[in-house]
Design a protein that fits this description.
Layout (H helix, E strand, L loop, with lengths): L6 H14 L3 H5 L3 H8 L6 H16 L8 H4 L7 H12 L8 H11 L8 H7 L1 H4 L5 H14 L18 H4 L13 E11 L4 E4 L15 E4 L10 E10 L2 E11 L8 E4 L9 H11 L3
Parallel strand pairs: 1-5
Antiparallel strand pairs: 1-3, 2-6, 4-5
């Protein structure tokens, strides 16, 4: 849940999720619809599907235990270097460092070099006797990530209360490196075309080719065009939506029709919406005003 999502957002979801699934086995016996419903609103739904798939592998192949090698852990669905190292350290208390953006920033400042100039695998290997000199490997993995998030922050780091400042070249240097990363916000304009009928149904498809929101159930969406095919389509509303680093300006159009393209299916706007993403539900709310 914490991959690509902030801690404050995750906490209520985590509590709800672990209250419902009290054991790995109960999770493995669940179905995708239930997982996605509990995950609803967190986005990046592939993470939820990987979590379900991984739980099944662990229960069926590993007797509900996490493998104790990085190589085996990385075979699990959706597990890469960062997550594998976090798991091997947190679960098995093995020497490991989960290298995320926070950790890279800490190391970069300690040596006062730009992140792009550091081979982090090599850096860890060279300094492993310093890093792994206690039996509290799980604490170290967690502490290093938290240290980067709370003390060695991207902006306004708390250098004067930092326990490492005596040995930190960033703190002690008059010329400090900068690792400024700007998350480019992209403004996009989209036209959304909603086929609806008198039964309060809306036509949805998974055939939108946008480079994002792929494989989600949505009405027809196209990048906004001044030469919009306005014939037979009625303008309903203009509203805004945000997805990751994209700010979307939505022009919502509709038309009543009993016929829809073959790649679409009718969906009741009053029906249980377990598998309908939040983006689509916002469209539902707008279109529902027509009835």
């Amino acid at each position: 849940m914490l991959q690509q999502t902030q801690v404050t957002t995750v906490i209520p979801y985590f509590k709800k999720f672990t209250k419902y699934f009290k054991t790995l086995k109960s999770l493995s016996k669940s179905n995708e619809q239930k997982i996605l419903k509990l995950w609803e609103g967190l986005g990046y739904y592939r993470r939820a599907r990987n979590l379900l798939a991984t739980s099944k592998v662990l229960v069926n192949q590993y007797n509900s235990k996490l493998p104790n090698t990085i190589k085996e852990i990385k075979k699990l669905p959706g597990i890469g270097d960062y997550t594998a190292n976090a798991l091997i350290g947190l679960v098995h208390d093995q020497p490991a460092i989960a290298v995320d953006g926070n950790v890279k920033r800490v190391f970069s400042r300690i040596v006062n070099k730009k992140e792009s100039k550091i081979n982090f695998d090599q850096f860890i290997e060279i300094n492993k006797k310093i890093f792994f000199n206690s039996k509290r490997n799980s604490d170290f993995v967690e502490a290093l990530m938290e240290f980067g998030a709370l003390i060695c922050k991207p902006k306004d780091p708390k250098c004067y209360i930092c326990n490492l400042n005596k040995n930190c070249k960033y703190f002690n240097s008059s010329i400090k490196i900068k690792n400024i990363k700007y998350k480019m916000i992209k403004n996009k304009n989209y036209d959304v075309f909603c086929y609806i009928n008198k039964k309060k149904q809306i036509a949805l498809t998974k055939k939108n080719n946008l480079g994002f929101l792929n494989q989600l159930s949505l009405p027809e969406i196209k990048e906004a065009n001044k030469n919009i095919r306005s014939r037979d389509w009625k303008f309903l509303k203009k509203y805004k939506n945000s997805i990751s680093n994209k700010k979307l300006n939505i022009n919502l159009y509709y038309k009543f029709s009993n016929k829809i393209p073959s790649s679409f299916v009718w969906h009741s706007m009053d029906k249980n919406k377990e598998l309908i993403p939040t983006f689509t539900k916002k469209i539902f709310r707008q279109v529902s005003t027509l009835f």
